[in-house]
Amino acid sequence: MARVHVISWQQTYNGLMSDSVLDDPGLLEARERFWSGALTDKRWSGNRAAVAELDGTVIGIAMSGPTQEADATGAVQVHLIYVEAAHHGSGTGPALLSAVLDPHESAAWRVAEHNPRTRAFMRKHGFAPDGHSKTEDDVRAVRWVRPRNRP
User: Fold this and answer.
1) Which single residue of 3, 61, 90, 148 could bond 106 by disulfide (Cβ 3.0 to 4.6 Å)?
2) What's the distance, CA 93 to chain centroid?
3) Mean pLDDT estimate for the chain
4) Cα separation of 18 and 88, whole Å?
């Protein structure tokens, strides 16, 4: 999971995020610690995580959980969905989204402002920008929300 996380950051955020972050030799180890905590720490027990595999190799990861933003619409926040670039367009992204988010839940998700592929994916799945943004690691992330859909 950590490997996919790092590779996807490098593929997605090259030119958007500082090279010092993306090329940090400790990035893989940091993501390993992140995933270890996210999957085992009781504080994160409300999170939902999923992996996509092909021939026994992880090619995509996703995680959602209770929103951490007081002003967000919806109780669920999509924390991340990453799919290795070689598998974009394969249906892996929608499958991961379905694995971590009920199709009728309202939800929030932050995406890098200059990430047209992810913005198109979000729009296709009912998300729209709500006007809120924040900057982390030199990347401006815009919050997108999806209202609750009735079955």
Assistant:
1) 148
2) 10
3) 91
4) 24
State the pairing for strand pair 57-66/76-83: antiparallel
Q: What are phi and psi of 122, to 5 degrees?
A: -65, -45
Looking at this protein, which amino acid is placed at residue 88? H
Give the span between the Cα atoms of 137 and 90, in whole angstroms: 29
Distance CA 138, CA 117 (A): 19
- Beta strands of 1-151 (E only): which ranges? 48-54, 57-66, 76-83, 107-112, 128-136, 139-146
Model-level pTM greater than 0.85? yes
Residue 151's pLDDT is: 52
Q: Which helix (H) or strand (E) holds 60?
A: strand 57-66
CB within 8 Å of 119: residues ≥ 6 apart: 111, 144
Question: Which domains, ranges and CATH numbers included, belong to the chain?
Answer: 2-146 (3.40.630.30)
